[in-house]
Structure formats: structure tokens, C-alpha cells
Design goal:
Layout: H1 10-16, E1 23-25, H2 29-33, H3 41-44, E2 49-51, H4 63-72, E3 80-83, H5 86-95, E4 98-103, H6 112-119, E5 123-126, H7 128-132, H8 136-140, H9 145-148, E6 152-155, E7 161-164, H10 173-181
Parallel strand pairs: 1-2, 3-4, 4-5
Antiparallel strand pairs: 6-7
């Protein structure tokens, strides 16, 4: 048998979520029981494991994720999909969910962050610790993608809702800003460039 190990820290991420969680995989149920089913993480999903066997079209079509939402009694618009593949991210976007990309720190493939962002991920977390720092529960309880990015929201004196996107370098603030405003702000995180503030209107 092939030795299967959990990604370091991922169990802590899943168990820390005080929300219903499930698995949406393009693998068959047979394969899932012999991979995920052999590690402790399986129990954290309480049997809520769904595969491409359940639908006619697998990811990147939205069918599997919409099936999961139906089975879990969840509103797709208030659901979060975390995936390490562009097909998974594209599926989440097509289903109307917030897509968060994940890159294992031991993943040898280059450019995975950029690949997942290009697929439509509003944020990409590298490693379990970074993933856990994202307030995912804010979205699943009716928050916004801005809150997932560590943003702060509030109403101004004129009644307009204003949001500030705050976060560590390379956590997806520019991509999310462009998604929310329709702007084409370029990433400015290289030597000699400083962007203090950029403003835009929610579209």
C-alpha cells in the first residue's frame, strides 16, 4: 500500500470550523475510501463525502458543488470552496461560491498560486497556517469575500458601505480589489514600488 499522510496542520483547519463541511472530489468513492478514508481527517467530515460518481458532469462544471450544497442544505452564495486545482476553483466560481485556492508547501509544481488566481480564486493560501488565518466562517455565515481577505467594513456618515482590504503581501488583495471594483490595478510588491492606498467603487 502507498503511504498516505495528511498535509501538516490541515486537520486543525477543518476541525476549527464551526460550520458544516464536506468533501467534493472528482475521484471515485472507491478511490476516496482508500485515500482520504485511511487518514484521520475522514472522520472530520462526518460522512459528508461527495464524488464525481454523484453527478453527470465533474469539476470544472458546477454540478458536483451544487449537489453538495443541496445535500448540505447550504446556500451556494454563502458557501466557500477550498481547492488546490484550477478545475475546482472554476467549478466554485461557476456555482456562485467563493473560491479559495490552496497550495501545499511541499507541492513541487511551480507557479501554483498564479494558476489558481487565474482560475478565479479570490485568495490563495500557501500552507495550512495561512489557510487557517483566513476568517472563512465570516463568509459561510453571510459575510463577503472582502471579509475573507481580512478586510474591514463599515458605514460612513453618508450611509455608504466602505471596505478596506488589509493583509499580508501576496495574499490576493489586488486580485480581490479588481474583482470587486472592476479596476485593473497591477500588483505592486516589488522593490522600489510603494502603493499607499487605492480606492474604487463596488461594481
Amino acid at each position: 500500500f502507498k503511504v498516505i499522510e495528511e498535509i501538516e496542520g490541515i486537520s486543525d483547519v477543518v476541525t476549527s470550523l464551526n460550520r458544516p463541511v464536506c468533501v467534493a472530489s472528482n475521484s471515485s468513492l472507491f478511490r476516496l475510501t482508500r485515500s482520504l478514508g485511511r487518514v484521520g481527517l475522514w472522520k472530520a467530515f462526518h460522512g459528508n463525502v461527495f464524488s464525481a460518481d454523484h453527478v453527470a458532469r465533474p469539476k470544472p462544471a458546477p454540478d458536483l458543488l451544487l449537489h453538495c450544497a443541496t445535500e448540505m442544505g447550504a446556500n451556494p452564495g454563502r458557501s466557500v470552496m477550498i481547492d488546490d486545482s484550477p478545475h475546482g476553483v472554476e467549478s466554485a466560481v461557476a456555482a456562485g461560491m467563493v473560491a479559495i485556492g490552496f497550495v501545499d508547501l511541499n507541492d513541487p509544481r511551480p507557479g501554483r498560486v498564479e494558476v489558481l488566481r487565474a482560475a478565479g480564486a479570490v485568495l490563495v493560501a500557501s500552507g495550512s497556517a495561512e489557510l487557517r488565518s483566513i476568517p472563512i466562517q465570516n463568509i459561510s455565515s453571510g459575510g463577503t469575500a472582502a471579509q475573507a481577505a481580512g478586510g474591514a467594513t463599515g458605514a460612513s456618515q453618508d450611509g455608504a458601505l466602505r471596505a478596506a482590504l488589509l493583509g499580508n503581501p501576496n495574499c490576493g488583495k489586488t486580485a480581490l480589489f479588481n474583482l470587486l471594483t472592476g479596476a485593473r490595478q497591477k500588483v505592486a510588491n516589488y522593490a522600489g514600488v510603494t502603493v499607499e492606498r487605492k480606492e474604487g467603487w463596488l461594481t
